[in-house]
Structure formats: structure tokens, C-alpha cells
Amino acid sequence: MFYYGNPGDIPVTGDWNGDGIDTIGVFRPTEGRFYLRNTNTQGVADMVFYFGNPGDIPVIGDWNNDGVDTIGLYRLSNRTFYLRNSNTQGVADLTFAYDQGTPVTPVAGDWDDDGDDTIGLVL
Questions:
Q1: Would you say 50 and 110 are in contact if contact means Cβ atoms under 8 Å apart?
Q2: pLDDT along the chain (123 residues), means of 10
Q3: Cα distance between residue 34 and residue 25, in whole Å
Q4: Buried-exposed string 73-88: b where 16+ CB fall within 10 A, e elsewhere
Q5: For position 22, what pLDDT does the model report?
Q6: Are strands 23-28 and 80-83 parallel, antiparallel or unpaired?
Q7: What is d(CA 9, CA 34) in angstroms, rounded to the nearest whole number?
Q8: What is the 3-state secondary structure (H, E, C) of the chain?
Q9: Cβ contact 96:81 at 8 Å
Q10: Cα distance between residue 114 and residue 112, in whole Å
Q11: How many angstroms separate the CA atoms of 5 and 119, rounded?
Q12: Which residue from 39, 104, 106 is spatially nearest to 72, judged by alpha carbons?
């Protein structure tokens, strides 16, 4: 057991470096900033970068089947996903709207066992 992040941060997990082990991270929704760590221990983030806007909802997955989980966001205000293929600051590599018309929770998974993750919505 250890502490990581600040009150109000949203926890995320993923294999950030492709070593086959999921590790910790947080998304700070007030800043639109990710803090990712390559070990499951307390300490300073290995990767810190801005992506998205305050209030976005993080979603994590291996979007391009390269063995590395990367960041993504769901923006409820325009019901749009923004996905990156690297854990760095920058423009989304993939952007698309997915509107179910009600408040939703974004999720990600390899639903068809093809090695890459895709998104889904829980209504």
C-alpha cells in the first residue's frame, strides 16, 4: 500500500513502457494533466504531460497494438473521444464522436481479441 496523487485525481492503470506489467498513474482533471509511473511504488511520476481539458474523463488502452498502453480522453460536452498512440503531450492521433445521448462512462478493452483496445460506453 502506498500513496500516489492528490485528492480529486482520477486513478488510471496501464503498461506505460511495454514491459508486460500494468502500473499506476493519475489524471488530474482540474489541470488536464497525466502523471504516470513505471513501477507500483510511491514516488515521482516517470511521465508528466498535459493532454485534454479540465473535466475530461481518462480512458486507457493499447490503441495501435504495439504492446504499450497509452492515454485517451472522453469529453462529455461534445461526446468525443481523443486517443494518443504515445504517452506524451500533443494532438490526438484519433478523434471521433460517439453519442449515446445520456451521461455515460467510457471504458476500453480488447473486445474481439485482436490485440488492440477499442472504446465502449457504459450507459
A1: no
A2: 94 97 97 97 97 95 97 94 97 92 87 93 87
A3: 7
A4: bbbeeeebbbbbbebe
A5: 98
A6: unpaired
A7: 9
A8: CCCCCCCCCEEEEECCCCCCCCEEEEEECCCCEEEECCCCCCCCCCEEEECCCCCCEEEEECCCCCCCCEEEEEECCCCEEEECCCCCCCCCCEEEECCCCCCCEEEEECCCCCCCCEEEEEC
A9: yes
A10: 6
A11: 25
A12: 106
- Are 86 and 66 in contact, with CB atoms under 8 Å apart? no
d(CA 56, CA 64): 22
- Confidence (pTM): 0.93
Residue 123 has a pLDDT of 83
What radius of gyration do the chain's Cα atoms show? 14
pLDDT, one tens digit per residue, over 38-48 is 999 999 999 99
Are 23 and 38 a contacting pair, CB within 8 Å?
yes
* Contact indicator for 25, 35 with CB cutoff of 8 Å: yes
Q: Are the beta carbons of 109 and 63 closer than 8 angstroms?
A: no
